C-alpha cells in the first residue's frame, strides 16, 4: 500500500512563505487526484488544493493566488506564500488511488501575527 509522508511544516511569520512536500512510498502516477487538505484548531478538515491526473487544479477560495500545488514523479508540493494566521493548521496530503483514499500523517504549519 502506498504511504504518504509530508514534510516542510513549521513556524512562519505572517506574510512569509513555506513549501510543503508529500513523498509517496510508491507510484502515484495513476492516482486520479492528489491534493492537500488542512484542519485548523477547532475546525473540520477542509480542501486546500487538488490536482488531477490530467493536470486540472482546484483551490479553496481562501488560498487562491497565494498557494500553488504541483507534482513531480511521486511527490506532491504545496508552495504557500503571503501566509496569514488563519492558515495555521495541520496540513495533510491525500491521494485517490482507484477506490482507495490514502492520507499522510500531517504536518503542522503555524503562522504568527
Q: Rg, please?
A: 13 Å
Distance between the termini: 40 Å
What quaternary form is this? single chain
Per the principal axes of the C-alpha atoms, what is the gross shape? globular
| Biggest beta-sheet profile | 7 strands, mixed
Low-confidence stretches: none
* SSE sequence, one letter per element: EEEEEEEEEEE
Task: Kindly describe this structure.
The protein has no helices and 11 strands. Helices cover 0% and strands 56% of the residues. The protein starts with a strand and ends with a strand. The strands form 2 sheets. Strands 2, 4, 5, 6, 9, 10 and 11 form a 7-stranded mixed sheet that branches. It has a 4-stranded antiparallel sheet with strand order 1-3-8-7, with no helix packed on it. A hairpin with a 6-residue loop joins strand 4 (33-39) and strand 5. The mean pLDDT is 95. It is mainly beta and 113 residues long.
Keywords, separated by commas or semicolons:
113 residues; mainly beta; seven-stranded mixed β-sheet; four-stranded antiparallel β-sheet; 56% strand
Short description:
With 113 residues, the protein is an all-beta fold. It contains no helices and eleven strands.
Amino acid at each position: 500500500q502506498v504511504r504518504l509522508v509530508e514534510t516542510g511544516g513549521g513556524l512562519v511569520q505572517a506574510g512569509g512563505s513555506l513549501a510543503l512536500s508529500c513523498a509517496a512510498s510508491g507510484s502515484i502516477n495513476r492516482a486520479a487526484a492528489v491534493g492537500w487538505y488542512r484542519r485548523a484548531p477547532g475546525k473540520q478538515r477542509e480542501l486546500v488544493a487538488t490536482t488531477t491526473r490530467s493536470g486540472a487544479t482546484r483551490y479553496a477560495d481562501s488560498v487562491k493566488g497565494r498557494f500553488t500545488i504541483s507534482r513531480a514523479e511521486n511527490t506532491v508540493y504545496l508552495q504557500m506564500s503571503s501566509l496569514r494566521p488563519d492558515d495555521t493548521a495541520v496540513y495533510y496530503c491525500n491521494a485517490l488511488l482507484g477506490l482507495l483514499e490514502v492520507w499522510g500523517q500531517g504536518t503542522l504549519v503555524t503562522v504568527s501575527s
